Amino acid sequence: MKNLSTILLLTVLITGSATLVRSDASDHRYNENDVVPLYANKVGPFHNPSETYRYFDLPFCSPGDVKEKKEALGEVLNGDRLVSAPYKLEFRKEKDTEVACRRKLTKEEVAQFRKAVKKDYYFQMYYDDLPIWGFLGKVDKEGKTDPSEYKYFLYKHIQFEILYNKDRVIEIGAKMDPHSVVDLTEDKDVDADFMYTVKWRETNIPFENRMDKYSQSSSLPHHLEIHWFSIINSCVTVLLLTGFLATILMRVLKNDFMKYAQDEEAADDQEETGWKYIHGDVFRFPKYKSLFSAAHGSGTQLFTLTVFIFMLALVGVFYPYNRGALFTALVVIYALTSGIAGYTSTSFYCQLEGTNWVRNLLLTGCLFCGPLFLTFCFLNTVAIAYSATAALPFGTIVVIVLIWTLVTAPLLVLGGIAGKNSKAEFHVPCRTTKYPREIPTLPWYRTTVPQMAMAGFLPFSAIYIELYYIFASVWGHRIYTIYSILFIVFLILLIVTAFITVALTYFQLAAEDHEWWWRSFLCGGSTGLFIYGYCLYYYYARSDMSGFMQTSFFFGYMACICYGFFLMLGTVGFRAALLFVRHIYKSIKCE
Q: How far apart are CA 259 and CA 501, in angstroms?
């Protein structure tokens, strides 16, 4: 297992380092007047981060022979499509109002640019691996109430300011000249001279620290205060919850143990009550045990995946504007951990005396990948219809299918065979009776749905403050780099999920309801449903996303992520409940 962990880490570190948007000059050292690579990446509405298009989908100046840069898997998944830009920025060579090209924009091209400006389009470029952004134009609304009176302008002069340290590029910024514009208000042909200015300034910032500007933006004092408030809020929740549960459960269990000990010493004809009464049914295997085992196996794999992602984040692999590394890591680690899902699921299924382990293995392989694949097919079709960069090229889809076929599926099968041959037994402290006891009629608040609502609310309340920053990073342009705080919040989430599931399981058993297996899984995973509920709130109240493509991408992929959380936290809740149930029944004398 230790060797497997080492291999996983090395593989992802190698692939992660390969996903950075690389310049042609691999050592990033230049002599004066050397050409430094400048790539145009994409354009799109500022408020719709998934809806991005190729840079030259708009009628910009073309450099003649547009060269496409070869991209790694993670970059393609991230929607990056880098091509050579129309501007030439030689190292330490200043330029003043140089004309990139002169164009006569047709009425159709003017309408195209006007639509882009109206939707707040921005562009993104990379210069020596450093990101550059800027807006395409502006809307003049001053003194106008009727939208038909608005005036639309396209910026035609971009001003680059570049910092250098000896023979290296350290920082680049781009400003648009607000006085050099093209009027796009009317549908008529217009002449446009696209110009650019380049200024160079020396700095003492070392090359190794040039990305700090971006990573420190999420560590500003007022942001850190909110993050630490989130941590303190979560810790208080955990302390109150664990203290309350520990006190109640220890006192109640102590009374139960004393009562049951006295009952054993007293006459045997006294009728048992409470959780001891169902000791002959509590370890009765659940219904749909193949599905239960598959969910348990998939949840274990996703938990392992999350732990590895956190390990890589904490050692600094996912620094700003290297987001392609995250997608690569997710694909590679998920493929390599599929053996864990196969082993856990099949081993547990055989412990539950299941016989059709092959069907169980197929179910395990499809339980998470199936919905994800269907969602991807629909959303990729939408992206193709929009001609967006989010549409994966055929070659990338082939690579992902090959990874699944040659790595994920074989490891899943090998793990399943190992699990089947493990011969592990399901250890129970009490013998299960031949016929199940009838479950007494329970009040409505003890049924599954109200219990799930109670179980999901507390873990969600411990993480909801941090959720905003994660959403603003994934579905916006905010940078998130405080992975240590996120890891603490993740640990708190696990602890609260485990404790609340254990408490609800105890109350369920005390009510003589012995069908706790599925209930503990559903209660543990219910936080995923709350996170999806938060998606609705974030979309309508905290973001300006709009349009069918962005809406479908947001709710489609968030459904898959929340489903993954449901499986992972459901597994955590079930394992905690199983440990608890084994412990309390081992502590009493069962006949």
A: 25
